[in-house]
Amino acid sequence: DALEPYMSKRTLELHWGEHHRGYVESLNKYLEKDDILYGYTLDELIRVTYNNGNPLPEYNVAAQVWNHDFFWESMQPGGGNLPILGLLQQIEKDFGSFSNFREEFTETALTLFGSGWVWLVLKRNEKRLAIATTTNAVTPLVWDDIPLLSLDMWEHAYYLDYKNDKARYVNVFMDHLVSWNAALARMARAQSFVNLGEPKIPVA
Amino acid sequence: MALRTLTTRKTLTTFPQQLRGLQTFTLPDLSYDYGALEPAISGDIMQLHHQKHHQTYITNYNKALEQLDDAIVKGDASTAVKLHSAIKFNGGGHVNHSIFWKNLAPTKEGGGEPPHGSLGWAIDQSYGSLDKLIAKMNAEGAAVQGSGWVWLAVDKELKRLVVETTANQDPLVTKGPSLVPLIGIDVWEHAYYLQYKNVRPDYLKNIWKVINWKYASEMYEKECP
After folding, report:
1. Quick count: other Cβ atoms within 10 Å of Cβ B15?
2. Nearest beta carbon to residue B168 from set A113, A154, A156
3. Burial track B99-113 (b if 16+ CB lie within 10 A, e otherwise)
4. In this structure, what are the phi and psi dihedrals at residue B160, rounded to the nearest 5 degrees?
């Protein structure tokens, strides 16, 4: 109940306890039967079962396990406020300002059709931050981008607390739940894979 | 004087629109009370589903149609094409839900009463029995990833029954141009979450108690007299 009143205990009990747990159990059941897939890490499993756009049946459960893990860690009690340090700088560089980013994020979340996720990702090739949406269980991992934050826009994530008022859910997420600390940590790790600026090479 | 130019400009823009006859859509009424489908579907869900979700689809569909109309008149092809996904989603939502309300009926008005006549016979022919059809539809409905619908349809060319699923609000014709929907079941989470939480199979099991087979039979007999 630590995320009350923004995300109710009941929602977490169901979302984590039933949905997420269901995905984990289904995945374990699949892996019991399939020798080929056994032994992969979760990240690798997702990429392999995505099969370049023709996902195998294990893909949905594997990706949803990962997605939900990522989502829980994208939130914290007492979240919200603004990102700090390098992350804020990068957001301002790639979106103009934090409020531009927030507006675009909200707009994207509200215009998503059907079930899916909204992400703040670091794009590997373009070396910049971007907002991405994915449908159902797709995750930016399969495009080799590095996710920093996610928001679950499947109806089960908000229906009990907000019914169909998606706008309120997204705004509450931004105001009170989003964990910029987690995003900052992920960004720091991502920078070991993506060169965002000129490396500072010492002269002498 | 400014007021006068305001009013004349307004009539100038509305007048051609009325000439063109752009029709706007309104929320159709249900032929039963929100609580009449209990305990299969709760009154809360029915009210939210009808007044909020369906209404939102209609509002956004009307908006998209207006924008499309505008783009067509101006010859703006790229905007017109860009609006297609909004029209498919919101228009599809309106079409699908309008069918859905007619697919449901309170038990005292025949909801759940198995089909007699030619549809009943066709079901036995194609699936063995009504129970087998229901089991098949429930399995396919439960297997839909994310949001979508499960349908019992008749192919009006081949004159046979088909069970299909569609994603999001895609209308049934996206799966086959000659498919005519007889029964559609909404498996978006908003259709059952408040009552059944994540146990979609329970929702699917119980909804058959309020399915209006009379409507389905009528539609079937129209295509296969």
Report:
1. 10
2. A113
3. bbbbbbbbeeeebbe
4. -140, 165
What residue in A sits closest to B50 (Cα-Cα)?
Answer: A164
Closest Cα in chain B, distance from residue A28 (Å): 18
Count other Cβ atoms within 10 Å, centred on residue A47.
18
A178-187, pLDDT tens digit by residue? 888 888 888 8
Rounded distance between C-alpha atoms, residue B61 and residue B69, angstroms: 12
The secondary element (H helix, E strand) that includes residue A129 is strand A128-135
**Please, which pLDDT band fits residue B24 given cuts at 50, 70 and 90?**
confident
- The pLDDT score that the predictor gives to residue B20 is 55
Q: To 10 degrees, the CA torsion angle through B23, B24, B28, B34?
A: 180
Query: How many residues would you count in chain B?
Result: 225
The answer, yes or no, to whether ipTM is higher than 0.85 is no
- Reading the block at residue B160, the tokens are 């046979």
Residue matched to tokens 């939130």: A75
| Structural tokens at position B47 | 């009210």
**Cα–Cα distance measured from residue B41 to residue B61, given in angstroms and rounded to the nearest whole number:** 26
CA dihedral A103, A6, B34, B147 (to 10 degrees): 60
Alpha helix ranges (H) inside chain B: 2-20, 43-48, 55-74, 77-82, 84-103, 117-127, 130-143, 193-196, 200-207, 213-223
Element (H, E) at A2: none
Residue B18 reports pLDDT greater than 70: no
The three-class DSSP label of residue B104 is strand
Instruction: Report the alpha-carbon distance of residue B220 to residue B224 in Å, rounded.
Output: 6
What DSSP line would sit under B110-145, residue for residue?
TTTPPP-HHHHHHHHHHHSSHHHHHHHHHHHHHH--
Taking contacts as CB-CB distances below 8 angstroms, the residues of chain B near A159 are: 189-190, 193-194
Please report, for residues A85, B1, B27, B90, the alpha-carbon distance to residue B64 in angstroms, rounded to integers and kept in the order given.
Answer: 42, 34, 16, 8
Q: Which residues does chain A have within 8 Å of residue B67's beta carbon, measured at their own beta carbons?
A: none
Say whether B146 and A114 touch across the interface (CB within 8 A): yes
Mean pLDDT of A136-146: 87
Q: Are A175 and A81 a contacting pair, CB within 8 Å?
A: no
Which two three-digit tokens encode residue A190? 């991502």
Using CA atoms, how far apart are residues B100 and B199, in angstroms rounded to an integer? Answer: 20
